[in-house]
Design a protein that fits this description.
heterodimer; A: 301 residues; MetI-like fold; two-stranded antiparallel sheet; 11 helices; 76% helix; globular; B: 266 residues; Rossmann fold; four-stranded antiparallel β-sheet
Chain lengths: 301, 266
């Protein structure tokens, strides 16, 4: 009797956990399958290389692809140096028993829990209204140059959103470098900075790249933070300066899904755009993973 | 203690010119919090000698060694007293610790090659000095001095982690030599090595002492007796005795020294 019960429980959990796993897989497969089925057919070189036309019922999505790439590159340029420096300070420079370090860490971790839309509002309030308007007042005599939604502000807002990812990954990568390696560096007459530069960073590079991968793939998919800070509904030109607005794939999807004058005509374009957005994110991820494994192999050699 | 201190630096040998004192430690007391590690140790290191420091584990040998190039700064130990290098106190507030560590180099107990190529490991010290260039000649010289050249001359570009333990330790020795230090500190450099690697390191030390002073901390009493010129015996943080190696091993002044070197305790 008892044995049968144990057998039953054992089998039940085998099946239950297996089903949970299956459900997740099926969900991902459904999403991807649906997107590929409806979106792949509409893909063409023309679709990728032209601008939308006829109220987004015809034409392509090139401005949105361009804007997304531009945005993510700007964001990476901002978040990686800032995040890596923060992590280096917390891990290597801050006094060992400082009371502030745990507080700073907690603040960074809380940043990760802030809803994306709040970042968008913060970006509007801080970057555009405060920083941008301030720059205009001091350098441009009050003319409207930086005090408006722009790709620069959107990228900085996204950088704030992805900062915790980079900081945490970098700190982790620095932490696993053995103490003996630091001692070797110091014993050979390294200053703290040279120790960081020549011993820690080469070993931490793959961890830092991991953080960057995660930051990029998160940043490329977020819509809420750029909603008020720079993304445009439609633009007849590509952004060439940092203070111009831009089109973005995620926002373009949102616009087409909610604002189209002709839903049936937009539908294939919408699916194809989602397909491109997914493909772009996956490609970015994949490229970064390749770079990381290459560096790992070089380190081991 | 007093007897040992009185003996310091005064060589009993009646040579024409008394050997010059390279480093001197005066009333060195080291504590970890309130736990004493070294008690009022005074000792000198002469030019071109190998000074062995022996004693059971926990006697403060390693801490003594780490004081000599201020690695104790990293341990959060409190250090009192002074350590002189060519007459200048290395613990003085104006002393440049990075310069000190270039002049007084250390080889740790476990081999510590960094995960990079053999050549990059060797170049580390120069890189920390922001010295760029092609120190190939110096690399060969250091590797030869560490008795490693023949084994790695064809694989300078491959990872240092692929070397055997004994080779890694000799690489660490060569890495220290790249900076042409005046004093070399060795912290049980052969503790994990086979007899052949050990012999190679000991042979290397005999060549090196022509150009530098060497402190060899060792758990191996036999190694001290066959390698060093003078030997210091530490016990529970006290310097019990320091003397010419031959004399310390044949007719030590202290009974505790006699007991230790003959293997009756420790």
């Amino acid at each position: 009797m008892k044995r049968r019960w144990i057998n039953f429980v054992s089998r039940f959990f085998t099946i239950a956990t297996g089903l949970a796993c299956l459900a997740v897989t099926v969900m991902v497969a459904l999403i991807l399958g649906n997107v590929v089925r409806h979106g792949f057919g509409h893909l063409s070189w023309k679709f990728l290389s032209t601008a939308p036309s006829a109220g987004m019922t015809e034409g392509g999505i090139f401005p949105a692809i361009f804007g997304t790439a531009f945005l993510v590159i700007l964001m990476t340029l901002a978040v990686v140096p800032l995040g890596v420096c923060t992590a280096i300070y917390l891990q290597e420079y801050a006094p060992a028993r400082s009371r502030w370090v745990p507080l700073v860490r907690m603040a960074i971790q809380n940043l990760a829990g802030v809803p994306a839309i709040v970042f968008g509002l913060f970006g509007l309030g801080f970057f555009i209204q405060f920083l941008g308007k301030g720059i205009d007042r001091f350098f441009f005599g009050g003319d409207l140059v930086f005090g408006q939604p722009a790709i620069l502000w959107a990228a900085l807002t996204l950088a704030l959103l992805t900062l915790p990812t980079v900081v945490v990954a970098t700190e982790e990568a620095l932490r696993v470098v053995p103490r003996a390696h630091r001692e070797v560096a110091y014993s050979l007459g390294a200053t703290r900075w040279r120790m960081v530069r020549h011993v820690l960073l080469p070993q931490a590079v793959s961890g830092i790249l991991t953080g960057t991968i995660l930051a990029v793939s998160r940043g490329a998919g977020e819509v809420a933070p750029i909603l008020f800070t720079g993304a445009a509904y439609y633009l007849p030109y590509l952004p060439k300066r940092l203070n111009q607005q831009f089109m973005e794939l995620g926002y373009h999807v949102y616009v087409m899904a909610t604002q189209s004058p002709d839903v049936d005509a937009t539908m294939p374009i919408l699916y194809a755009t989602v397909f491109v957005l997914l493909a772009l994110t996956f490609t970015l991820n994949f490229a970064a993973i390749l770079i990381r494994s290459k560096i790992r192999r070089r380190m081991k050699r | 203690m007093a007897a040992a201190r009185g003996h310091l630096g005064l060589s009993d040998e009646t040579t024409a010119a008394p050997p010059k004192e390279k480093m001197a430690v005066r009333h060195l007391t080291v504590k970890a919090g309130k736990t004493p590690i070294l008690n009022d140790v005074s000792l000198s290191l002469l030019e071109n000698e190998i000074l062995a420091v022996i004693g059971p584990s926990g006697s403060g040998k390693t801490s003594f060694l780490r004081c000599l190039n201020r690695l104790t700064d990293l341990d959060g130990l409190s250090v009192e007293g002074e350590a002189l290098l060519d007459g200048h106190n290395i613990f003085a507030s104006e002393a440049d610790v990075t310069l000190l560590r270039r002049r007084v180099s250390v080889v740790f107990a476990t081999p510590t090659p960094l995960p990079m190529s053999v050549a990059d490991n060797l170049k580390l010290g120069l890189r920390f000095k922001a010295e760029v260039g092609h120190p190939e000649g110096r690399m060969e010289k250091s590797l030869r001095a560490a008795f490693l050249w023949d084994e790695v001359k064809d694989r300078l570009g491959s990872s240092a982690l692929d070397l055997s333990g004994g080779q890694q330790q000799r690489l660490c020795l060569a890495r220290s030599l790249m900076l042409e230090p005046e004093v070399l500190l060795l912290d049980e450099p052969c503790s994990g090595l086979d007899p052949i690697s050990t012999a190679k390191i000991e042979e290397a030390l005999q060549g090196l002492k022509k150009t530098m002073a060497i402190v060899l901390v060792t758990n191996n009493v036999k190694q001290a007796s066959r390698t060093s010129d003078r030997t210091a015996f530490l016990l529970m943080g006290d310097l019990i005795e320091v003397d010419d190696t031959g004399r310390l091993f044949t007719s030590p002044r202290e009974e505790r020294t006699a007991d230790y070197v003959s293997g009756r305790f420790g």
